[in-house]
Write the structure tokens for this entry.
Amino acid sequence: MTTLDDLRAELGGNERLAADLLRVTGEPGAVAGLFPAAGRRYGRDPLGDGWATDEAARALLLAAVPPEQVGDIYRHGDTAEKLAVLKALPLLPIGPSAVPLLEDALRTNDTRLVAAALGPYSDHLDQEAWRQAVLKCVFMGVPLKDVHRLAERADAPLGAMLRAFAAERHAAGRDMPPDALALLDQLKEA
Amino acid sequence: MRIFDPHIHMTSRTTDDYQRMAEAGVRAVVEPAFWLGQPRTNPGSFTDYFDSIIGWEPFRASQFGIRHHATIALNPKEANDPRCRPVLDLLPRYLAKDGVVAVGEIGYDSMTPAEDEVFSAQLALALDHDLPALVHTPHRDKARGTQRSLDVIKESGIDPGRVALDHLNEVTVDAARDAGVWVGFSIYPDTKMSPDRMVEILRKYGTERVLVNSAADWGKSDPLLTVRTAEAMLAAGFTAEDVDRVLWRNPVDFYSQSGRLDLSDVDGAEATFAGNSILRGGS
């Protein structure tokens, strides 16, 4: 998995970012103006491993401020900023303290935020909330391949929820997404 | 025909509207922050609204292939309520966003001392954040309100080419043109301007620095009156090129001054303007 050090190495040549990171370390309040402007200040080029320059820069900005500021940055973020925070969570030394941010993202009706909430940091979601989140993905058409440790965490209660949902879809003459059917199959074998 | 509606309040509209707009050629919109009919009573009510017009609403628009940007401000009507004034301190965080392409709607409602202060303070914010300004002109006492707005704009030091003065009509257009600001016209079913009156204005003043919008909101309004105006222009002998200038390139030029207008995911926009650095320009 990508680490903060990998991202630092990737963006080592970005002088503007280096100067801003130094500034934020001494003056954490400055992050409020820099975090939203990341794409405009540092660029948006893809870096490989699924990261873009602005996302990686935002992860490093988050790592440079006191952890208790992460929630505030998420709260005031637009969608791209919130996605960047959710992506960075597993890299930050914050333990399970940011679970409320996942819960916020899972309350939205934006497929991008819901998908982002089910990345590696979702290991901190309790099983009940996690099942609801997976079912919400099926409901909204979010591909289940984006769900971290799906095969491992999927359990019998999730199977029951999916079967009930499939029955509703069947009654309405609507299809289940193929990835949800595949998951049901897997749970039947278990 | 491609249409850019530079002033429309989509949070008040349904998905049926988005569908009809997309089918009629509307590919980009700007949603200015304004009031909601029911006056708000605390700053938190504003931040949830601002979050919505930079978050949920662009997502909703994208479902119909329409690109959505916003302008952010404390509107003049609610600027008069001291409970809402702390919103001014919250604006810088929002003016830093990629999807925010101007400060607005600012200006006058009843021309009170509180409105004077908040208008000037927000023109200063536009300068600080290197953003254009969208200025609303009052519905009552419009001619005097327009002149006073132009005086405040001049005093602020902002380049008039970075200001759009909106909701103008036959009576107020001359003063605005003389001042060098962009002139905005809202086409409404009964009030403000109609497509035919708009065509007459374009005949008289030409197509430069003119913005035409539906300003559609929760009142009686119609998000397709931009399209009806384009059709009225063609019927009156304007060329397709003229229509494209007024209903696409002009709003693109005005809002690109923010350096943040991003039309890269809207078909056809990039090809025509390649080399004009409108896409995610600036720093």
Chain A is about 60% helix and 5% strand. Chain A has a mean pLDDT of 96.
